[in-house]
Specification:
This protein has about 210 residues and is an alpha/beta fold. It has one domain: Spore Coat Polysaccharide Biosynthesis Protein SpsA, Chain A. Helices cover about 40% and strands about 15% of the residues. It has a seven-stranded mixed beta sheet with strand order 3-2-1-4-6-5-7, with helices on both faces.
Length: about 210
C-alpha cells in the first residue's frame, strides 16, 4: 500500500512558541520552516509514500514546500489543526478513489524515509492506526486506510484521545526519527542527536543550544 501523507503547518509567524528559550522571535519562523522542509523531503523519499500534501495558510511555507514537490492545500477552515487535517483528507480523497491517508507532523526534522516506511507498512494492517511521540503523550502520525475516515484528535493528550477514538497504537522499535517531534529546546537537542536534515542543521547552527 502506498500513502498520501498530509502535513499540517500553521502560520510560521506563530509557530514554535515553546522554543522561545532556545530561539529568538526572529529565528523561530525560519526554524519552523526548516523543520517542515526536512520533514517533507524525507516523506517524499519514502518508498511507501505516493505523494505529500501540505495544508497551510502560510504563503511563504506553501511556496517553499511546493518547490520541494509537495501539493499545497489551503487551510480554508482556519479552525485549528484537526479541522485543517479533516479538510485536507477530504480534498485528497477528491483527487483519487479511496487513497490511504496519513497525517504526519511537520516538525520531524530527523525523519528517515526507511523508518517512515516501516511505520506506514505497519499501519496498513489496521483500519486506523497511530504512532505516539517520543514523550509517549502526543501523536506524530495518524493513518487511515482506504475508505476509512481519518478522525484526527491531535492536541493535548492526543495519544489517549486517538486510543479512545478506536485507532490502534503502533508499537514499533527503531523508529525514533518518526517519533521525535520538536516543541522544546530539549526536543531539538534530541533531534540533533538523531541527525537532522540539512535545512534544520543550517538553521540550528545559528542558535546557542547548551549540550548540542
Amino acid at each position: 500500500m502506498r500513502w498520501t501523507v498530509v502535513v499540517p503547518l500553521k502560520s510560521l509567524a506563530r509557530a514554535k512558541s515553546r522554543l522561545a528559550d532556545t530561539a529568538a522571535d526572529g529565528l523561530r519562523p525560519g526554524l519552523a520552516l526548516a523543520f517542515a522542509q526536512d520533514t517533507v523531503t524525507a516523506a517524499l523519499a519514502c518508498a511507501a509514500v505516493r505523494d505529500v500534501a501540505v495544508v497551510t495558510g502560510d504563503a511563504l511555507a506553501g511556496e517553499e514546500l511546493a518547490a520541494l514537490g509537495a501539493r499545497i492545500i489551503a487551510d480554508e477552515p482556519g479552525g485549528g489543526l484537526n479541522a485543517a487535517l479533516a479538510h485536507a483528507a477530504a480534498v485528497v480523497r477528491s483527487w483519487r478513489t479511496d487513497p490511504a491517508v496519513a497525517a504526519l507532523n511537520a516538525d520531524l526534522p530527523a525523519l528517515r524515509p526507511t523508518e517512515l516506511s516501516r511505520v506506514l507498512d505497519a499501519a496498513a494492517e489496521f483500519p486506523r492506526a497511530f504512532l505516539p511521540d517520543a514523550a509517549a503523550i502526543g501523536t506524530t502520525l495518524l493513518a487511515a486506510g482506504r475508505a476509512r475516515e481519518l478522525l484526527p484528535a491531535f492536541g493535548a493528550d492526543s495519544r489517549a484521545r486517538h486510543h479512545a477514538s478506536g485507532a490502534v497504537e503502533l508499537r514499533l522499535d527503531a523508529v525514533d526519527s518518526v517519533r521525535q517531534d520538536v516543541d522544546t529546546g530539549d526536543d531539538l537537542r534530541a533531534a540533533l542527536a538523531l541527525g537532522v536534515g540539512p535545512r534544520t542543521a543550517a538553521a540550528a547552527a545559528r542558535l546557542l543550544i547548551p549540550g548540542q
